[in-house]
Amino acid sequence: MKSQHKCIVIFALVCCCALLIALIFSAVDVWGDDEDGITVDKCSRTCRVVLVENIPEDLSIPYKDTVSLTAGLHELLDKARRSVEIVSPWWALNSTTSGSNLPQAKQGKILLHQLKSLRSRSVSLRVASGLTDSNWTNSELEALTRSGADVHYLNMTALSRGQLSSSFWLVDRKHMYIGSAGMDWRSLSTMKEFGIIIHDCSCLVLDLHRIFSLYWQLQYKDFLPSIWSKRLYALYNGDEALQLRLDDTEAEAYISSSPDVFCPKDRVKDIEAIKSVIQEAKTFIYISIPDYLPMLNRSKPKYWSLIDSMLREALILKGKLDVRVLISCGDETEPLTRNFLWSLRALCVESLRCSLEAKFFVPRERSDGRLSRISRSRFMVTDSSVYLGNLNWLGNELAFSAGVGVVIRQRLSENITVVERVKAVFERDWHSHYTKTLDPHQIPVCSTHTVKDNTSA
Ligand SMILES: *[C@@H]1O[C@H](CO)[C@@H](O)[C@H](O)[C@H]1NC(C)=O
Ligand SMILES: *[C@@H]1O[C@H](CO)[C@@H](O)[C@H](O)[C@H]1NC(C)=O
Ligand SMILES: *[C@@H]1O[C@H](CO)[C@@H](O)[C@H](O)[C@H]1NC(C)=O
Ligand SMILES: *[C@@H]1O[C@H](CO)[C@@H](O)[C@H](O)[C@H]1NC(C)=O
Ligand SMILES: *[C@@H]1O[C@H](CO)[C@@H](O)[C@H](O)[C@H]1NC(C)=O
């Protein structure tokens, strides 16, 4: 009888231990791949920045201390020795539309070919991608898989009811790219895109890699884990930003992420990053974005006030603040965009001394008469910071879609800063022939002044 009791007690103890061990491992994680010997204490923070742009050939806009996106991405691929990791909203490098034989489609095919040949250089390629509607795969990703790439698919509909809009690269855990361009031949030809490449910056890349690892884990899952591994926690945030040197100038940087449910402990959400950049601005805020629509549109449309109220507060309370918004217009632009921008503008009466100006980047007229956007640039620059993110400023995207952003803060220095360089890019576009001032009386805003298209982009 006594020994039977003993047995039950021991059995219970063993069960408890097993449960404890299981709990510990689920939190600490055992799946991990090592981080190539790069650790938070042993990483590089003396980095080089390359601002990359794609400027369509038919626009006469000069590069401004920037290099072409194609050249920037090829430089990254040439440097790769061990690994290339890519997240892109969609894959369309090998154009299969009627435009496939256009000279503009060539760069996409070359890039795809380069990615396929990574294997022959013993460089691994890992890709995280969203599902395209009902299809689990995409023919291009299948081709990459056949040439040795590892592809993980995320069902964003199930995870957050949004899209995977993230667009970034990690190379050898040392170099990174974040920008508006995805793996789409149009991003390398007919669209205007803007991004940033940072070389030799393993400290910052380590943190961005944690977001990649988070996506990697979510393959085929239809729910989020209730507890994230510690190895996915953010390393830096707004209060404890990474101190680094960018091109020989002091800077602070951190990475933000969206949606909220994809943000483990300490990770700054994109909306918080946008808020702090707006709040820290003293004299100007310049925003270049395809859409500005503070609305959520799910079962029924709702006002989504977060960014709109931050801008209102800044305009009213800061005094002598100059806000410029450059949006990109096309047939898909929601007409209410104009009303929202106009209402912001109306706040700045003379006594407040603030100013809000809005312009739109002219669309391209396609052969079927429809107007499509040219610019997909997504960034904000102020007197002290740059925020460059993947998401459009629409309630639906910021609330539900996956994206990443990078914030760089720099004080004025004897050397030219990244913040000043991004400002120069904004000012070049703002004053170019391809922008028009927003007119409250003209509906739709982008009906006149277009760039003619003789391709079928
Ligand atoms: C690219 O498209 C062409 C024709 O559209 C096709 O022959 C070729 O196999 C495709 N390449 C890849 C890598 O998918
Ligand atoms: C997946 O896409 C291919 C073309 O890309 C199409 O032929 C096929 O029918 C699609 N499959 C499903 C289940 O929709
Ligand atoms: C993605 O998730 C949604 C919602 O859970 C589900 O209806 C859909 O079938 C899933 N897609 C695939 C390809 O499994
Ligand atoms: C400016 O750049 C030079 C070299 O390019 C560097 O030695 C110097 O420290 C920089 N100045 C500041 C204030 O960072
Ligand atoms: C909201 O979505 C519905 C359909 O999904 C669409 O008809 C409507 O134009 C959208 N409204 C806004 C303001 O985006």
UniProtKB/TrEMBL annotation:
The keyword Signal applies. Keywords: Signal. Residues 187-362 form the PLD-like domain. InterPro entries: Diverse_PLD-related, PLDc_3. Residues 1-32 form the signal peptide. Pfam families: PLDc_3. This is PLD-like domain-containing protein.
